[in-house]
Amino acid sequence: MAEKKKSAPVSTGPVKPEDKKKALETALAQIEKNFGKGAIMRLGDDIPVNVEAISTGSLSLDLALGIGGVPRGRIVEIYGPESSGKTTLALH
């Protein structure tokens, strides 16, 4: 019968912000090393692309989409549970 190997005890105390940041930087560096520069990025690091949009006619929907409507020349998928208004939105 095989013997169980004892693992090192894991600290369950609060994690310091410096340790979190160091672990994140290490993980990002490892991913970029394995998969190349640009394989992963932090949200907001890149300059947003200016996309031309077609207004939906609904101000609140345009604001929710983030660019002022649906993007011109792109495929838009509307999904959700049944009876949630997908067809009504598409026919609007």
Helix content class: 25-40%
Strand adjacency order, main sheet: 1-2
| Structural class determined from secondary elements | mainly alpha
What series of H and E elements makes up the topology?
HEHEH
Main β sheet profile: 2 strands, antiparallel
* N- and C-termini, Cα separation: 69 Å
User: What gyration radius follows from the Cα positions, in whole Å?
Assistant: 23 Å
Please report the number of helical segments: 3
Mean pLDDT figure: 86
Domain tally:
2
Strand content: under 5%
Taken from the alpha-carbon principal axes, the silhouette is elongated
Instruction: Tell how many strands the DSSP assignment holds.
Output: 2
Low-confidence stretches: none
Provide a descriptive summary of the structure in words.
There is one protein chain. By secondary structure, the chain is mostly helical. The chain has two domains: 16-46; 53-91, no CATH class. 35% of the residues lie in helices and 4% in strands. A two-stranded antiparallel sheet has the order 1-2. The protein is elongated. This is RecA.
Question: Mind sketching the topology for me?
Answer:
Blueprint: H1 17-35, E1 53-54, H2 59-65, E2 70-71, H3 86-91
Antiparallel strand pairs: 1-2
Keywords for this entry:
single chain; 92 residues; mainly alpha; 2 domains; two-stranded antiparallel sheet; 2 strands; 35% helix; elongated; single-stranded DNA binding; ATP-dependent DNA damage sensor activity
Quick structural overview:
The chain folds into 2 domains: 31 residues; 39 residues, no CATH class.
